[in-house]
Amino acid sequence: MISNDPYAELERRFGRLSAINRAGAILNWDRSTMMPEGASEDRADQLATLNVLAHEIMVAPDMPALLARAEEGRPILGVWQSANLREMRHAWTHANALPADLVEARTRAASTCEMAWREARKRADFKSLLPSLAEVVTLTRRVGEAKAAALGLSLYDALLDEYEPGGRSARIDARFDELATFLPGLLQRVMERQKLAGDPLPLDGPFPVEAQRALGEKLIRAIGFDFAHGRLDVSAHPFTGGTPDDVRVTTRYDEADFARALMGVLHECGHALYELGLPRDWRRQPVGAARGMVLHESQSLLMEMQACRSDAFIAFAAPLMRTAFGRAGPAWESSNIHRLYTRVAPGLIRVDADEVTYPLHIMLRYRLERAILAGDLALADLPAAWNDGMAELLGIVPADDAMGCLQDIHWPDGAWGYFPTYTLGALAAAQLFASACRADASLMTAIGQGDFAPLLGWLRINVHGKGSLVDTDTLLTEATGASLGTSAFKAHLESRYLPA
Amino acid sequence: MISNDPYAELERRFGRLSAINRAGAILNWDRSTMMPEGASEDRADQLATLNVLAHEIMVAPDMPALLARAEEGRPILGVWQSANLREMRHAWTHANALPADLVEARTRAASTCEMAWREARKRADFKSLLPSLAEVVTLTRRVGEAKAAALGLSLYDALLDEYEPGGRSARIDARFDELATFLPGLLQRVMERQKLAGDPLPLDGPFPVEAQRALGEKLIRAIGFDFAHGRLDVSAHPFTGGTPDDVRVTTRYDEADFARALMGVLHECGHALYELGLPRDWRRQPVGAARGMVLHESQSLLMEMQACRSDAFIAFAAPLMRTAFGRAGPAWESSNIHRLYTRVAPGLIRVDADEVTYPLHIMLRYRLERAILAGDLALADLPAAWNDGMAELLGIVPADDAMGCLQDIHWPDGAWGYFPTYTLGALAAAQLFASACRADASLMTAIGQGDFAPLLGWLRINVHGKGSLVDTDTLLTEATGASLGTSAFKAHLESRYLPA
Question: Is the Cβ–Cβ distance between A497 and A186 less than 8 Å?
Answer without folding.
Answer: yes
